[in-house]
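For anyone still unconvinced, we reproduce a single protein record, the chain in one-letter code, the fold tokenised, and leave readers to judge:
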Amino acid sequence: MTEELPPILDTTQVAELLGMNIQMVRRYAREGRIPAYKLPGGRTFKFFRDEVIELLRSHPASSETVEASESSES
């Protein structure tokens, strides 16, 4: 899947990749929780695909996290 993505992503593409809401991706970008960039004078965030994927790899789900999310879904 990641080979299909361009090297620079927009907010919508990151939201789809992470399975998140677009507004949440923007919020995380503003808070610095997801590495994001804006061009000078630009209003939209841009993301490097490899940085987003590395972020995911550096925060693997633990069994405790998975169990908590599964119990909250019930």
Summary: The chain has a mean pLDDT of 87. The beta strands are 8-9, 47-48. The chain is about 55% helix and 5% strand. The longest helix spans residues 63-73.
